[in-house]
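Most newcomers find our protein records easier to grasp once they have seen one. There is nothing in a record beyond a sequence line and a structure line. Getting from the letters to the tokens is the skill we practise here. An example says more than a description, so a record of this kind follows:
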Amino acid sequence: MNILVVDDQVLNCKLLKAMLEQQFYTVFCAHNGRDALKILESQDIDIVLLDVVMPVMDGFEAAPKIKQYAGEVYLPIIFITALEDQSSFEKCLAVGGDDFIHKPFDKVILSAKIKAHARTRRLSQQSNEQRRQLEYHYNQIEREHEIVEHIFSNALAQQSEYPEICEYHLSPASMFNGDMFLMAKSPMGGFYCLLGDFTGHGLAAAVGALPASRIFYTMVQKGMAVGDIAVELNTALNELLPGHMFCAAAIIELSSSGKSVSAWLGGLPDLYLIDQNGSLIKTIESQHMALGILEVDEFERNLLHFEVSPDQRLVMATDGIIESESERGEMYGERRLKRLLASRQHISTDQIISEVREFSGNTEQQDDLSIAIINCVASESIVSAPNHYSSLPFNISLSLDAKQMKTTDPVLELVDLLSEVDGISAHRSNIFLLLSEAYNNSLDHGVLGLDSEIKNKEDGFFEFYSLRESVLKELKEALIIISVRYSPEELKLYFNICDSGNGFESSERNKAQQEHSHGRGVSLLNEIAQSVSYNSAGNEVEMIYSLTSKSV
């Protein structure tokens, strides 16, 4: 340890130097404050023993300069003084002195004071080094955050705004948002959006948004169905994210006519279909596990399809909204959210966020707050229909027995096959929806004889699909025939699906039941297809889809 002795008396310097060197300290001597400052510039000094009365620059003048030179690291100054008055002691401490010792020196006391201040200096040096390292790492993190923010901005740059259809609000709990909201229009005019909530929040949670956004935008531009997007996202996130991370998500497609919605819901809170006054029309519950959990062969792509009208709005939010806590630890909850939606006409996302924050008071935001409202209105196609269509007519026919109904997904394979034909791929989402709805109607209600009214009960979806699984497992003999004919002259696809079930009566009463949101989907099929017709037995449906008409 290096000690600087500053005293104009040569004898005092020699005495202190000899005394300290016996204790194995390295000692430097100066005879005034100015010389002491020069030594500080060239040597790493740990303690300064400073006389008060000296020529050129005395101790009172030198002390503050020494402290200024030391900067943030503690450099102890022990005044050596023969002064006895109280005011001199106070001045020594006022100008920067940390301690003092009287002349003549007491070796034991001096040694004890040096050791005590040496410990404090070491702690100060360690603290300063840690602070310097923290500052360095902070600056590194700041630069890395700037880079990541730039990457995120570019990754989400292609997102367009559709204020007439959708408004949304994202409020992250930290610098990076673990929630994401993506939206785009397909070439046929359908409006797609994805609200996702990754496990946790901050940078770690936000990382998944990069591949998810790329997959979403790419697939929407290809006109892929909502189920296809869900499968691709699940596969990518399952491979990318660690086992404890996943993404609760709602993927929505609003038809270009604004009359129907297709939805894949996994792990998010309930969605609400409301009217312009905020009155609840329908609660749409999550049907699947979150994205990134299940393997490809376990993943379920089943969609919900329901009709909507221009005066209706679809509200979707992440759990940060309903789990926001008040200062008393009370959660905001679904009941308050429903009550808020009904409290005013055409409520906005900003008004909802404002109410939630007012409820939370001064409590720190614990999770990302995200909410979106979709107005169920029509939108125009982005581009015209493709000019080139295949000139080759074809017929495809599939006959499915009970075993194949249990183990295959004929709709997906058939849509994949049709999408390879020139001019048809842009209609993939519509064709998938058409075939999926018709096939599931034939299987669920025709072959299995299930009643969709079950879905209207509390936890009805779970009960319905549990019953479906058990009945399908016991199915022994059944037949569904799917036929597709393409007419290049008319630019039309003719679909025919026939099942071996008992069909339904074509009475007005049963027709009304079919058109229920959970019925055999007659209204939804009519929304998509140019025409839909049933045979008299009610177990065969023919649908004509025009490739030149506007997408719904």
Remarks:
- Residues 107-155 form the longest helix (49 residues).
- The CA atoms of residues 531 and 544 lie 5 Å apart.
